[in-house]
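Re: the 648-residue chain
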Amino acid sequence: MKSWRYCVLFCIFAITAQAGSMPDERLAAQREQFLSLEKDNQIWRQPDTKRIEDALKPLKDYPLLPYLRLQALSERLKSLPVSEVDSFLTRYAGTPLETTLRKRWLSELANQSLAEPYIEAYQPHLGTRYTCDYLNFQLSVTDNPAFWLEQVNDIWLSGQSRPDECDPVFKLWQRAGLMTIDRVIGRAELVAKAGNTRMLSYLQRRLPPTHHYIITLWRQIKRNPTTVTRYADFPLKYAQYEIPVIYFGLTRLAWQNPDKAIRAFTNWQKKIDFSEGQLQQIHRAIAISLAIDNDEKAMEWLAKANVPAAEADVRHWHLAYMLRQQDWQGALEVIDSAPEREQLDEAFRYWRARGLGELDADAMQNQLLSELSGERHYYGFLASARLAKQPALTNQPLQVSDALLAKVGLYPSVKRAREWFELGRFVEARREWYYLNKKLNSEEKQAATLLASNWGWHDQAIFGFARTGHFDDVERRFPLAFAEQFQQQATQHQVDPAMAMAIARRESSFMVDAVSPAGARGLMQLMPGTVNFITSSRVSRKTLFEPDKNLAFGIQYLKYLNDKLGENPVLVTASYNAGWKRVQEWLPDEGEQPLDVWIENIPYRETRHYVKAVMAYRYIYQKQLGQDANVFDTLSRMKVSADSLTLP
């Protein structure tokens, strides 16, 4: 029996070795031929199937061969028999190959108005345009149109513009009397909140004239929330439609001008009945806005907003406001008022300890800090620094058997993902990896994560550890990616390399082609304008995807921020995320503030969490790089003011 097992393992390893050790020259030739064929559209349009197969023969064992077959099918969809398409879809079910061909096939069937084949080939979750075509075809053949028309409701009720393919089914839906006033105004609310105000005119035309003013109110309130203070504009003729506009306007106005919002809210409360949920959200917006402004009225409104059903950010800002006032007893009362599960949060545990210490309950403070110091996160590291002890940084590597690694490594989708990765085609690689992970069990996902880490595919390894819940493999979760380049540039610009790596880890997880919704690019997520400014030249956006150049520009920017902000690690980190001018506006107007208190009062949630994460990541990288420094020793002692940064 043992010999049989050894044989199986040997065979697996032999196959893996063979698959992973294709002669470099042959693999290089296959890659070159693949890329050449990929660009040669003419060959796939040939009616002669033999010529296509002859071109593919040298690539018979190349992982990306199916993509060329996909290309060949796509170019000849009009003339292909259904069986050939079905065969490919079945063979590559659950992969991006299947999804890509199925979408192209459905588009071709729709162009030819072939209802039955379309219905047969359709699958949900491919996109709205395909669903609308599907419903349209079903309505053309069904004996029960009511069933299919009811399914149009969910497509209609969206804040986004719908594809042109939905127009025919919307017309049928409207003729059936299903485009009701409630549904049109309901969609107008979603559209206005999404900022697609151009669509409001389209919706207004679908209402009777008596209701046109409702759409006008949504348009005006989106453009300017002070509309809610023009009381005569709201006749309350159709109060059920006007109250959502008023509620939306009050919450928006609260963030811009809480005093105006309070006056308007007081007026409207006399005229209309807000729901409990609406009242809760209005109180929340006013209270948090006042707390951010450090307004003395914040106490009153935070007390109103901090009810048992309140969102967690209300309690955060209630606590943060108390900390800024140095009201330690009040801070402890806020923590005690939180739900029990929230009181176990590391932030509340840390601030309970700090509060007890400020109130001279040192023994209780030290006990809580000691418990917290054994945990690996921002507050745990802060607790360790306050106790003058070494923070916990236990590394427990993920263990996966060699046999399972070999097995998963042989999956065709794994091979395809790796080959795309090696070609630098990261979008295609991630697409394969995404589909793969939907099919793997938990043990296989762990193996795939280790494979990605071994290949140097850092972003997918990092995401994989998070996906599998294995957070203790610290060295792999915080890889020394591009370490030599970081060290070289950091030395040149006198920047801590651990700081630069921590920012890259937070910004992109070392995804070299990352692009944010705002347009930041590359490893260190740099805006083109920022790079042009610090280099005094025009740098192409494509250049920002080159890792060496991106990290060089990022470290140069860190040097610039260090010079601006006295090398304060927290202010520099916050400025990297939100801009140094804005960060300076957040500094206390009078006196000094402990740096940990200042962090809790950062107005932007994203920046607040960003700073905490980067501080923790920086410490981890300091240890990874063998540095003696500990950023939390500095952070725990520092105070910040509008004009000075001091160490007590």
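The CA atoms of residues 490 and 497 lie 5 Å apart.
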